[in-house]
Amino acid sequence: MAGVCEGGGQGAEFRFDFSGPNTGTPAVLVIGTFSVKFRETGDVVSYQGTATIFPNFHQLAFTRATCTVTTAAGITFSITACHLFAEDDANSEAFDFGAGVFPVVAAAKDPVISGGMNID
Fold first, then answer.
1. Looking at the 3D structure of the chain, how many domains does it have?
2. Sequential pLDDT tens for the chain (120 residues)
3. CB within 10 Å: which end of the chain, N or C, has fewer?
């Protein structure tokens, strides 16, 4: 992955679906999937595995994970040290995804997405 900094553009389309038992604790271990598609390039980064939901703060996070990159040309490879932070707060939403040596690969803040997100 080449290091390119870009603002605006077509943006990134991200999806996640994690679930687990509500243990009533401040941090809940969940399992699921995450993907982000970069609309300008067509490249997709995906992750399947565990994450943590912090219900009181409406936050979802995973760190030090291995993600799969599929380029628009169909080339697939893995990268380590992926991390995700997503927050669904009443007054703001945030999304921050990084991979490997890149601290931020895709990030967004208010408004993050047109469909909204729900993290409990």
1. 1
2. 444 555 556 677 888 899 999 888 999 999 999 998 888 889 999 999 999 999 988 899 999 999 998 999 999 999 888 998 888 876 667 778 887 665 556 666 655 555 556 676
3. C
Structural domain of 97: 12-109
Q: What is the pTM of this model?
A: 0.78
Residue 116 is assigned to a structural domain of this protein:
no
CA distance 110 to 103: 20
Neighbouring residues of 63: CB distance < 8 A, sequence distance ≥ 6: 83
φ, ψ (nearest 5 deg) of residue 56: -65, -25
- Which one-letter DSSP state was computed for residue 75? -
Distance separating alpha carbons of residues 22 and 45, to the nearest angstrom: 28
Could you tell me if residue 32 is inside a domain?
yes
What separation in angstroms does the CA of 92 have from each of 15, 36, 48, 101?
A: 18, 20, 26, 28
**19-23: long-range contacts at Cβ-Cβ below 8 A with a sequence spacing of 24 or more?**
20/53, 22/55
